[in-house]
Amino acid sequence: MTGRSRSVVNRAVLGAVGLTLLITGSWLAATDRHLADRLPSWWPTAGTGTVLLDGDQLARLRGEGWWTPAVMAAAIGLTVLFALCAVARFSRGPTRHLALPSPRCTVRPQALADALTARVAALPGIARSHARVLPRRGRRLELALRVWLEPDTPPDAVLPALRAVTAEAGTAAAPYTARTRVRLSAASHRMPRVR
User: In this structure, are residues 133 and 166 in contact, taking their beta carbons and an 8 Å threshold?
Assistant: First the structure.
């Protein structure tokens, strides 16, 4: 599942759950006996001192042939759905290795990102950096580089060095074609606090 479709599914599920809880909460709040006299005549209300599903109604439902299988199927389905969502959300899956031009040589994308982070952080005028290497289809890599400049360092001062490092990373990633995105930010001036 791609990132965009996962985001759409997450939002749809959260919206459906939220809408269900809103409707249920509204119904429960509206059937309170203090609010019952203010409701429209068509609104379903429960009698004073009653419950949503009493013993007689529950016994009648349990006597139906479809009730027990429906409850079990819904419970199992929801359990499996929530378990799959949790596993998909918190597991990254197996680490994909990138094949290098030499026979039987591979590198992990995280190792390449760590090396790129260290190389960029060592450049003059850069306070810190963070790199991500994202493998894409068709022997393509996306290098996402976040760089924080030291205070009073103009971007023009570090761009040639960054260009050289990203070109070096693109050469090192052969046979993959690397596309680099660089995001520059200024490190904040640290002001001493007086207490």
Answer: no
Q: CA 32, CA 54: separation in Å to the nearest integer?
A: 17
Half-sphere exposure for 8 (CA within 13 Å, toward CB): 5
- 20: domain range? 3-90
Alpha carbons 37 and 109: distance in angstroms, whole number: 65
Looking at 90, 119, 153, the residue that finishes a domain is 90
Are residues 10 and 56 both part of a single domain? yes
pTM flag (> 0.85) = no
Q: Is residue 191 part of a domain?
A: no
Q: How many CB atoms lie within 10 A of CB 160?
A: 9
Cα–Cα distance, 37 to 176 (Å, whole number): 71
What distance in Å separates the CA atoms of residue 116 and residue 110, rounded to the nearest whole number? 10
Q: pLDDT of 71-81, one tens digit each?
A: 899 999 999 98
